[in-house]
Design a protein that fits this description.
This protein is mostly helical. It is built from 21 helices and 3 strands. Helix 3 crosses helix 4 and helix 8 packs parallel to helix 21. Bound molecules: magnesium ion (MG). Magnesium ion binds next to helix 11 and helix 12.
Length: 507
């Protein structure tokens, strides 16, 4: 940023007060990370209690009259610079949430999702949607209530989307999906009709040793020059990223018995999230602008950029093949081309997180259509298993055999996160625009991936164009400021067409 400077006296006073809120959030974050990674099972209840109390304390401190009056005052100030304006915008957003959602509602919501998480796990294990049904009904009901509290223009779903992407509406999302559906479907058909099309790859079945896989993941992070002094990698069933400060990011990955690309991709994906926080301008630390969760579209653009555009590229695979073949001596027989084919195999599948770069978006469309219809009361929770099957048939031509690989596969709804899914797709399409702009400035990305120096250039560019700002600008504004254009889906579609037409020999 030209200069990060907080000059306005009111803003300075606000930021001084905010430091205590920041510290509380920091400590709650550590407790939450521990809850999701290492806590002994029986410790969960007390941790939930402590986190709920901390959240109440945060709300109380935020709604302190002295603080809210300062925010209102700052809003009326003239000549604020971009950072100062950004800070006011972000704080006003939190204020709206704290003021409009009654503490009893937040408590009920938290309690409901804590219980729903347990029920969801059981339901998934026993392969029985019935166990989860009542919980999801309650969650949908509470989400509609939340939308009513927060207010919306056209659809209650708008208010929920806004929670994950500032300003995103159901209409925006609908327009976005309408624009990508046809070209993606066409490309998928061409791939399925090509001679090289296959539904399985031998490497999917190959097993690996977890300890050696961990070393491979760490080698990938080392290649990205990610210092272990600033980032820790741990394990969880659902990989995630959280950062507590500029110099303390945590990512998790997962390990299975076979199909090693899943573990590596998860690591690279989460690294992309972590880098966003680690490359924020240091003057924004301890301020509201360090919180980048306001735009999951930007966040997913970063994680999916590293996961797909770098992590699934021929150059990256070539670079770490020697490390890959160490995880199982049998891998020696697979050359770079085999590995590349394995990492980029396109075929309709039932599980979203295992999907390739093309079919992935159909998984998201299905979830978007379902959750919107639930919130707009056009379908009922009890009909979901059937609706799910029909949608998979319609979009991907396949049907789940059971609820576990169907409607129960994602944890999001159990956590009350309705309105989250569209950000995955929109963010991925933003990553295509980012690649285009990066290549315009730095040349072919494959040349950059060849060396650590090139990786450094990629990181420095991402810092300059995106990371340094934290949440100073809303997504659309940032895209306009940094790239002088609007988010347009054609850049990512071009990337997909070029890459996969070459891979599948499509003329
Ligand atoms: Mg992610």
């Amino acid at each position: 940023m030209e200069m990060v400077q907080f000059n306005n006296p009111t803003i300075k006073e606000i930021l001084e007060y905010f430091k205590t809120l920041w510290a509380l959030g920091h400590l709650a974050g550590v407790a939450e990370w521990d809850l999701r990674t290492y806590i002994p099972e029986d410790g969960v209840t007390a941790r939930g209690f402590a986190l709920a109390k901390a959240a109440t304390l945060q709300q109380k401190l935020f709604l302190d009259k002295k603080f809210t009056e300062l925010i209102e005052k700052a809003e009326k100030e003239k000549n604020l610079n971009d950072c100062e304006k950004g800070a006011v915008r972000v704080l006003k957003r939190s204020l709206r949430h704290y003021e409009k959602l009654p503490p009893e509602f937040i408590e009920e919501f938290e309690k409901t999702v804590t219980e729903a998480d347990v029920a969801w796990r059981q339901a998934k294990e026993k392969n029985d949607f019935k166990i989860f049904e009542k919980h999801l009904e309650k969650i949908v009901e509470l989400c509609i209530k939340k939308a009513e509290y927060l207010g919306y223009d056209k659809s209650p779903y708008d208010a929920l989307l806004d929670d994950f992407e500032e300003g995103l509406t159901a209409k925006d999302a609908e327009k976005f999906f309408a624009s990508i559906k046809k070209p993606l479907k066409k490309l998928l058909e061409q791939i399925k009709n090509s001679k090289k099309y296959k539904e399985k790859h031998a490497l999917e079945k190959e097993t690996y040793d977890t300890e050696k896989m961990k070393i491979l993941n760490l080698k990938a992070l080392e290649f990205f020059q990610c210092s272990p002094r600033r980032l820790r990698m741990d394990i969880s069933a659902h990989p995630f990223t959280i950062y507590f400060s500029l110099n303390d990011a945590r990512i998790t990955t997962r390990y299975g018995k076979n199909d090693f690309a899943r573990s590596l991709s998860a690591t690279v994906h989460e690294f992309g999230h972590a880098l966003y926080g680690m490359q924020c301008n240091e003057k924004l630390e301890y301020t509201p602008l360090f919180d980048t969760d306001l735009s999951l579209v930007i966040h997913e653009s970063q994680s999916r950029f590293w996961e797909n555009i770098i992590g699934r590229s021929g150059e990256f695979i070539k670079k770490i093949r020697n490390e890959i073949i160490k995880i199982n001596p049998k891998f020696n027989k697979y050359g770079t081309d085999d590995l590349h084919e394995y990492f980029n195999l396109v075929r309709p599948s039932l599980i979203r997180t295992e999907a390739d770069e093309i079919t992935y978006h159909f998984h998201i469309m299905i979830r978007f259509e379902i959750e919107r219809a639930l919130i707009e009361k056009k379908i009922k929770v009890k009909d979901l298993p059937e609706v799910w099957k029909a949608k998979y048939k319609e979009h991907l031509g396949i049907e789940p055999k059971n609820d576990s690989e169907g409607v129960l596969q994602d944890v999001h709804w159990a956590h009350g996160a309705i309105g989250y899914f569209p950000t995955y797709s929109i963010g991925t399409f933003l990553s295509g625009l980012i690649k285009y702009e990066m290549e315009h400035d730095l040349g072919n990305i494959n040349n950059l991936i060849k060396s650590k120096a090139g990786i450094n250039q990629i990181k420095a560019w991402l810092k300059e164009k995106i990371h340094q700002y934290g949440s100073t600008y809303p997504m659309k504004e940032l895209v306009k400021k940094s790239f002088k254009k609007d988010l347009n889906t054609s850049y990512h579609m071009d990337y997909l067409e070029r890459k996969y037409k070459e891979q599948y020999n499509i003329k």
